[in-house]
Write a structure and sequence with these properties.
Elements lengths: L2 E5 L2 E4 L5 E9 L2 E7 L5 H17 L3 E8 L5 H4 L2 H8 L2 E5 L3 H5 L3 H7 L21 E3 L4 E3 L5 E6 L8 E6 L5 E6 L5 H6 L8 H13 L4 E4 L8 H22 L5 E2 H11 L6 H20 L3 E6 L2 E6 L1
Parallel strand pairs: 4-5, 5-6, 6-7, 11-12
Antiparallel strand pairs: 1-2, 2-3, 3-4, 8-9, 9-10, 10-11, 13-15, 14-15
Length: about 300
């Protein structure tokens, strides 16, 4: 975990979840910082805060953390909120539809599981500590900092309800997009071919939107910075198309229940599911089924109190 300089006044801290830092220089020895996400746990939050403090101390710059901008409310992106806010008195910014899980963190595993979750998945990985948003941000909001950095908030739904990306434009016209889980890097999409999605169609649209920004760098929520943004987005789309086809292949021979389709998809991708994967892939599979249903490629029927899916 270390602070890495990407462009003038733009940094990120690499970790299991990448954390962005935007510096608003007030004077030669004083800066205000805006963080993008906060890590997955209180321990992450402490380490991140220590790294930031140490980095700017070495530069002899006094810092104030103005706000944590949460891209969305998944625990691995907001788990450090509480400890950082307690130690810095910073604000918490997030989009409106993401506030529910921030204020009521127990909702996240409930949404993924579809009801009262098993205790095995009611852990800190899925349930962050409660924090109250200070500001609701929208895609219409724009901020120009004192040192000329322009911040725009980009709507990137699909991975979750109302996820946002933060587009930073420097004074020399460099553009960096903190895209969170709106795009997955090559290594990550290769390793996790079925990433968690809430809405397949919206995720595809968000990939196109990220490409349309013509950014110089893209910092994903997980993994290395992306320079070949269009190529990486295309790889994400290939994964989605592959998963769509996998569901359709499962239904070629006969109608199946969701549980049977889940087994087919997991077997086909050589995934030996543990309980967390069962929950997350199962939730994502339901998103694919709804997408294919809306595309009029599949439909369903209820027989003998079972819901079956079939090709149209």
């Amino acid at each position: 975990m270390a602070v890495i300089n990407v462009a003038d006044f733009i940094y990120y801290i690499s970790g299991l979840t990448n954390v962005g830092i935007i510096e608003e220089q007030i004077s030669q020895n004083e800066s205000v910082l805006y963080m993008i996400d906060s890590g997955g746990t209180s321990e992450d939050g402490k380490k991140i805060l220590n790294e930031i403090t140490e980095y700017f101390n070495k530069k002899n710059v006094k810092i104030t953390i103005k706000a944590i901008i949460n891209t969305h409310s998944h625990a691995d992106h907001c788990g450090g909120n509480k400890i950082i806010q307690q130690q810095t008195n910073c604000e918490i910014w997030i989009s409106e539809k993401e506030t529910g899980s921030l204020i009521n963190p127990f909702l996240q595993p409930i949404i993924s599981w579809g009801g009262n979750p098993l205790p095995e998945i009611n852990s800190s990985y899925y349930v962050a500590e409660k924090t109250i948003p200070s500001k609701i941000i929208t895609s219409n909001d724009k901020i120009t900092l004192q040192n000329g950095i322009e911040l725009s908030f980009i709507s990137l739904p699909g991975h979750y309800f109302e996820m946002i990306g933060i587009l930073c434009k420097t004074t020399n016209n460099k553009k960096i997009i903190f895209a969170s889980d709106g795009i997955f890097g090559r290594k990550n999409i290769g390793k996790y071919w079925i990433p968690f999605l809430y809405d397949v169609k919206e995720f595809k649209n968000s990939l196109d939107k990220i490409c349309s920004l013509n950014a110089d760098y893209c910092i994903p929520g997980h993994g290395e910075p992306i320079e070949q943004i269009e190529e990486t987005a295309e790889l994400n789309k290939i994964a989605i198309i592959s998963n769509e086809k996998c569901v359709l292949e499962a239904l070629k021979q006969k109608e199946l229940t969701q549980e049977e389709i889940l087994k087919y998809v997991a077997d086909k991708n050589e995934i030996n599911m543990h309980i967390a994967q069962y929950m997350l892939i199962g939730c994502t599979l339901r998103a694919y089924l709804v997408f294919l249903y809306n595309e009029k490629k599949i439909s369903f029927s209820i027989k003998e109190n079972k819901l079956f899916w079939h090709l149209i």
